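Researcher: Last one for today. Full complex below.
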Amino acid sequence: QVQLVQSGAEVKKPGASVKVSCKASGYTFTGYYMHWVRQAPGQGLEWMGWINPNSGGTNYAQKFQGRVTMTRDTSISTAYMELSRLRSDDTAVYYCARAIYSGSYRGGMDVWGQGTTVTVSS
Amino acid sequence: DIQMTQSPSSLSASVGDRVTITCRASQSISSYLNWYQQKPGKAPKLLIYAASSLQSGVPSRFSGSGSGTDFTLTISSLQPEDFATYYCQQSYSTLGTFGQGTKLEIK
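Model: Here's the assembly. Have a good evening.
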């Protein structure tokens, strides 16, 4: 079955970086864009960006420009999201989510990872 | 960036009620509007994509409509499992944005 499995919870100090992985299975990894979405405690969903696993092309929300890097390793069907210069307000659950249409960032996100909790605390 | 505004922010309703949630975009997004349901501690679930297409496996009591800037999600007859938070999201722009969410609670 199609699924996304994310890496485990992380605790980081302010100023550090975190790298979250998202391993895809059950479909052609390079055929579907991957989005990253986060949710701070008690807050709504916040779109962070996407990566085209085929080309490696990326697009980031302006809020995260300069701090976020999305990459992929097609040999192991895994996408990564790295966020640097962490602050306390980066504490959130981070999700990867597959775009529904093959070869396009458009359309909804039909398959979601289980979420990775990142806690930023001194 | 395109801003998405949902209303209401919260809503109390009873089992069997018909419920409508609205979402407005700050500029035209054609039909590139998606709806998600999220329950506490769980990942969001896609309900509707392209404004009115029902995602596979989603009950037919959920429906979506609209185009341009104004969209609605309708639940025709609320079931106990429908009490959750609902989000709209636009995928017209390369920069995707979500609405702030609508929390649907039991009256």
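The radius of gyration of chain B is 13 Å. Chain B has a mean pLDDT of 97.
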